[in-house]
Backbone:
């Protein structure tokens, strides 16, 4: 998508920090899909993963050049902004697969861009799985860019990498199976969660049931304490 390419070229032209090497930026999300395929859809943010290459100074400079600010010239021109995402936040394998954007990088002086692999982007979208996420995934499947074997491998790797995160893993597995059955048109791969994840998922379900029961009991007690109108003859 040429608009996204121009967006990063514009940031590169405005770059004023000096360094001996180019600043490496890892692009994820739908922007990564548009930068490496012929897919295009409206998006407002370009997610950049916060890696060791992004120092606090570089992060501050990025957000200054392309903020979510209607008064900023870059935002007014492209209707896009940079969002720097913490490395531990995306649902991804421990070592994500990325590809350099060689053609675009040759036109950049200060930045070196790489994009998350299509299958890894698809896996990362199972966590939120909103309407846009499902559309992005379907578009990649329609282009035959999602191999089921790789999808299973990378999904299991993401489960292992994110096992200590506070995520709703049963829901993510359900989303994974939805993509297999409804989009890839293949049978659902059994996914065994680590026992401690299943335990915590069960605890959350039980806790939710108990909370509902406690709320009903509390409402009953409050009703019993409500004052009644007394009529005296």
Residues:
């Amino acid at each position: 998508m040429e608009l996204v390419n121009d967006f990063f070229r514009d940031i590169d032209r405005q770059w004023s920090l000096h360094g001996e090497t180019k600043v490496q930026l890892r692009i994820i999300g739908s922007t990564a899909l548009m930068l490496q395929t012929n897919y295009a859809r409206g998006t407002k943010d370009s997610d950049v993963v916060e890696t060791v290459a992004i120092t606090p100074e570089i992060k501050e400079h990025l957000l200054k050049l392309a903020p979510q600010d209607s008064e900023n010239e870059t935002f007014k021109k492209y209707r896009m902004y940079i969002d720097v995402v913490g490395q531990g936040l995306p649902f991804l394998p421990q070592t994500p697969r990325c590809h350099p954007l060689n053609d675009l990088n040759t036109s950049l002086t200060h930045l070196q861009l790489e994009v998350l692999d299509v299958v890894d982007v698809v896996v990362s979208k199972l966590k939120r799985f909103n309407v846009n996420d499902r559309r992005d995934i379907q578009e990649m499947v329609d282009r035959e860019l999602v191999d089921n074997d790789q999808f299973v491998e990378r999904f299991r790797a993401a489960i292992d990498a994110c096992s200590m995160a506070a995520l709703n893993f049963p829901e993510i597995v359900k989303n994974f199976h939805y993509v297999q059955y409804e989009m890839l048109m293949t049978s659902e791969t059994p996914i065994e969660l680590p026992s401690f994840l299943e335990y915590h998922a069960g605890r959350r379900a039980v806790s939710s049931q108990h909370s509902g029961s406690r709320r009903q009991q509390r409402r009953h007690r409050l009703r019993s304490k409500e004052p009644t109108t007394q009529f005296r003859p």
